[in-house]
Structure formats: C-alpha cells, structure tokens
C-alpha cells in the first residue's frame, strides 16, 4: 500500500517539494520567515488558477498556449470598461472577464474540432491574434494605480491574516488564496465525480475508444478549452486587482511557467493523466524555486533556464513512466 502510494506522481512531487524546502531553508534561512511563506502562497494564486485550466486541456490530450493572451485581454478590456463607465462593483467585472475568456476558449475548441487542426498551432494563432487586436484596437497604455477602480484594489488587498514586523511594516496572507482553493476543489470534484471529468480522461487516453463507448467528444473538447479560457480570464482580472494596475502587455512568456508546473505535477503530455493535487504541488514547487532564485539574487535570465530544464526533466520522466507502464 505504502509502496504503491509512493509511486503516484503526487507523492513524488510532494517528496521533491519537501526536499527542496529543506535544502533552500538551509542555504537561506530567510526562506522560512512567515512573510516569505505568505508571499509564496500569494504568488501561487494567479499561476495556479491558470494551471488548473491548462490541466483540463492536457488531460484531454491537447495543449494551450493562448491562455496568457486571453487573460490579458479579459483583464484589460474589463478594467478599461470599469474606468470608462465609472463602474464601482466587483462581482460583475469578474463575471465579464470570465465570460470573455470562455468565449475565446470556445473559439479555440471550434477551430480544433471543426478543422481537425493541431491544438498547438491553433492556440499559437489565437494568442497572436488576440494580443494584436488588443494592442491595435483597444490601446497600449497601462492603467496605473491612480486610475484603477478603487473597489477592485480593495478587493485584491483583502487579507485573511495581518501581522506586523519588528520594524513596523505590515504583511498578511491574501484572501485570494481561498478563491484559488475553491476553484481547485471545484475542478477536482468535476474530474473525479462527474461524467465530463471521466470523458476528459477517456478522450485524452484514446479519443476513438472514448467516442465508441458513448462519450460526446465534441462536448468534452469544448468543456476543456472553455474552462481553460474562463479560468484564464478570471485569473487575469484577479492579477490586476492584486498588483493594482492593468498592463496590456502583461503575461508575456507566462505559458512556459504554467505548462512547466502542470507537467511537473504529473500531467502527461500525451493526455489521459493528471490531477489537481499534483498540479497544485507542481505550481508551489516551481514558484518556490523561482522565489528562491530571486532571494539569492540570481538573474532572471537564469530563472528561465531553470524553468526550461524543469519542463525537459518533467516531460522526460513522464514519458519514461508511461513507457514503463505500457511495457
């Protein structure tokens, strides 16, 4: 029982996470400070929400690199609209951002399904089109904190816990972590206990077999890309509320970090495998590594090298694991 548990991808990632935490803590004791841990959890929120959406696509056997463009489009259009109409609410903007992402995700699914196109090519194309239209038609200027809707800022500033350091500065644990946890739990329950969740695994493992046993593969594909787009749109506006600005050039290169985290969490690039728990652990491990590199004053260029190596290593291990199971 214990041996089979340790063979699970989630267990492997959890062990790697604990070992990394011990090593990093020994190298730099500041890692264990409460304000650094709170900062780590805060950094998990946006990338984690996006990663949960990408997980659904990868389980279905696809790939999505358009979600950063969808996130920035949903975020910028929503904030721009709030400023233009002097809107003071918070709930409706998040609904609007989520719907924008969902509609764009549906377009991905339509192109992939209707024209039998490769998901990577489709999502590369839609990402480029959306970013180009956003910058060309909507604008390129950043909406700074002085122009941001104050209600959105107040929402992003909400903390569960507030503490004070010896020098008088304050820090806290963001309440956005609860939203992240709720969304992750909802996706976990959908994958584990619903027919659409089962169809994702079946479709990702063997599309033709899934269709033969009665799964509606069209709806499966639509759900995966719509959910990924919707979560990206929601995460984009949440990101804006947490950093107090809206930059139409944001999230460039973000797809590498998210995909690395999902693969690191045990999702197979060939489809049919992956879990929310593994993805959450993968996100935390990747964010922790990048955070530690920043603490050790490692240049951002080398951080990208680390992310690239993580993708290669995790993909290699996943492919090796799948071959061993087949053998």
Mind explaining what this structure looks like?
With 327 residues, the chain is mainly alpha-helical. The protein contains 14 helices and two strands, in the order αααααααββααααααα. The chain has helices at residues 2-6, 9-27, 34-59, 67-85, 91-114, 119-138, 150-157, 176-193, 195-205, 207-212, 217-243, 254-264, 276-295, 300-326; strands at 159-164, 170-174. A hairpin with a 5-residue loop joins β1 (159-164) and β2. The longest helix is centred in the last third of the chain and has 27 residues, at 217-243.
How far the N terminus sits from the C terminus, by CA atoms, comes to 22 Å
Task: Label the structural class.
Answer: mainly alpha
Radius of gyration: 20 Å
How much of the polypeptide forms β-strand, as a percent range?
under 5%
The percent range for helix content is: over 70%
Total count of helical runs of at least 4 residues = 14
Order of helices and strands: HHHHHHHEEHHHHHHH
Average pLDDT across residues?
A: 91
The description of the largest β-sheet is: 2 strands, antiparallel
- What oligomerization state is this entry in? single chain
- Number of distinct beta strands: 2
Shape: globular
| Low-confidence spans | none
Main β-sheet, spatial strand arrangement: 1-2
Write the layout of secondary structure elements.
Layout: H1 2-6, H2 9-27, H3 34-59, H4 67-85, H5 91-114, H6 119-138, H7 150-157, E1 159-164, E2 170-174, H8 176-193, H9 195-205, H10 207-212, H11 217-243, H12 254-264, H13 276-295, H14 300-326
Antiparallel strand pairs: 1-2
Helix pairs in contact: 2-13, 3-8, 3-9, 3-11, 3-12, 3-13, 4-5, 4-6, 4-11, 5-6, 5-11, 7-11, 8-9, 9-11, 12-13, 12-14, 13-14
